[in-house]
Amino acid sequence: MGQTYANVELIIVDDCSTDESVQVIEKLLPSLKNTRFKALQSNSGNCRAFNQGLTMASGEFIIDLASDDVLNPDRIEKGIMAFRSTGEETGVNFTDAELINENGIRTGYHSDRFPHESIPQGNIYTEILFRYFINSPTMMIRRRVFEKLDGYDETLAYEDFDFWVRSSRDFNYCYTAEALVKKRILPDSLGKMQYKKGSKQMMSTFHVCEKAFELNRTKEEQLALRKRIRYELAHALHVGEFGIAFNYLRLLLK
Question: Is the separation of the CB atoms in 131 and 118 below 8 Å?
């Protein structure tokens, strides 16, 4: 699989694709070492599909990678090094990312918007409540983090914000200031649809904020969540999602 770290297990989950992906993967399987494949019979969504693959995995560290994104050859090796250097309390390693378009051409770096020196490490719970700075495909995660969280929350339309909040409550994060993953930016990606009227992601974000309210322990954390709620409330009003906006207002008043 082109990684400098040899002990790698590949789990492929096809979430009921409508093209010929299953046939192509099945033809490739005999040539792939340490690889298992599961084709889902109905579309389950990202969270449930990932959890299906997670039950098949046996490794100590997990990377959740979409088919559009690319790991650099030394991504896993450098992730292992980061975990070893920061200790058992670290549950997640994340890195800078090279941004590419649908043709694989570089368009920039994640660190162009989020400079290395601005990235927090260690206990990032408070900061993750009110601002974005992690490029999701760059994450490498200890298996026991997923075991504690019982995987992704399958009731949600997307996984990363919920995962960041719940995992950072109990585990430290460490950052590698190198672009070890290529993140493909597509015009119809889920991220582009987050603040569109009717988006299921907007209600999922509200539910994550509800969880954070229950997880918070300090006044500083409540103030950070308040910033997030105001931000999401403004977006909900802007796109005409008044029901979601009202839910945020009620949560803000708590």
Answer: no
